[in-house]
Amino acid sequence: MSKTVQKDEEVLTINLAPYLTPISILISGVMITLAILASGRSTSVVSGNTNVTVTPTAAAEDVNPAAQTTIDDDPYLGNKETAKVAIVEFSDYECPFCQRHHEQTYPSIIKDYVDSGKAIYVFRDYIAVPSHNPAATTEAYAASCLREQLSSNAKYFEYADLLFKNSKGNGGGLDGTALYDYAKQVGANTDTLKTCIESAKFANEIAADEAAADAAGVQGTPGFVVGVLAADGSVDGKIIAGAYPYETFKAMIEEMLAR
């Protein structure tokens, strides 16, 4: 492209072509940067052979957002009279990451904080993946029915451990009569248990747990609210979203103990 300018009968020709590409790149870069800042995201902009990272000034999303929940009347381990902290797990017996948490991390939490009287550990049902049913709901019913029959939180967690260790996960459930075999192993009457499971007696309880998870901001399993336990059973703390290593839980529990 060229432009002709006439001045005092002299003709001056200016060739603008060499300047168009740099000007276009500059304008594009400014527009992309403004768009990124407006959207609050971070990305990379490619200009020529140079990669430039543009980071917005907005703060990054908190990976452990504040959350509140309650222990409700759900099963727990520990001493509520001495515990300052509650670890509330929203979980699903068919969730592979929940199974991994109970195998790798849960035992250390119980040993270091629950057995010492510093914390209680609460289990609440949250079947976030529909394809985990019907096995997940049946197992949740079985655990709640067993707890009621034996009037024991300790037996509930003993049975829960067996479910987590032996279920195939992802809706695969347990082999054969294992659901009842493990219940008998911890002292339950299997006929009574079967009647309770088939009655769906604890359907409303599970629905309440799932509503509590949603209200707290838990979006998947396992999801945890770790916080300070009040006398009325409310828990004020933060979310741990996922099967994180023990060190993550330790840091969060210690933070809550220091409050």
Any overview of this molecule?
The structure is a single chain. The chain is an alpha+beta fold. The chain has two domains: 2-54, no CATH class; 66-257, 3-Layer(aba) Sandwich (Glutaredoxin). The protein contains nine helices and ten strands. The strands form three sheets. The protein has a six-stranded mixed beta sheet with strand order 5-10-9-7-8-6, sandwiched between helices. It has a two-stranded antiparallel ribbon with strand order 1-2. A two-stranded antiparallel ribbon has the order 3-4. α3 (106-114) packs parallel to α9, α4 runs antiparallel to α5 (153-166) and α4 crosses α7 (190-199). It is globular, with a radius of gyration of 29 Å. It starts with a strand and ends with a helix.
How do the helices and strands line up, and which of them pair or pack?
Elements lengths: L1 E6 L2 E6 L1 H23 L3 E5 L2 E5 L11 E5 L5 E2 L7 E7 L4 H9 L1 H9 L4 E7 L9 H16 L2 H14 L11 H8 L4 H10 L3 H14 L6 E7 L4 E8 L4 H12 L2
Parallel strand pairs: 7-8
Antiparallel strand pairs: 1-2, 3-4, 5-10, 6-8, 7-9, 9-10
Helix pairs in contact: 3-9, 4-5, 4-7
Short description:
By secondary structure, this protein is of the alpha+beta class.
CATH class of the largest domain: Alpha Beta
CATH superfamily annotation of the largest domain? Glutaredoxin
- Biggest sheet, strands in spatial order? 5-10-9-7-8-6
Number of domains: 2
CATH architecture of the largest domain: 3-Layer(aba) Sandwich
Major sheet, described briefly? 6 strands, mixed
Q: Helical content, roughly?
A: 40-55%
What is the count of DSSP helices, taking H or I runs of 4+ residues? 9
Approximately what portion of the residues adopt beta-strand conformation? 15-25%
**N→C terminal distance:** 70 Å
Give the uncertain stretches in residue-range form: 1-17, 19-60
Query: What would you call the shape?
Result: globular
Tell me the Rg in angstroms.
Answer: 29 Å
Based on helices, strands and strand pairing, what is the structural class? alpha+beta
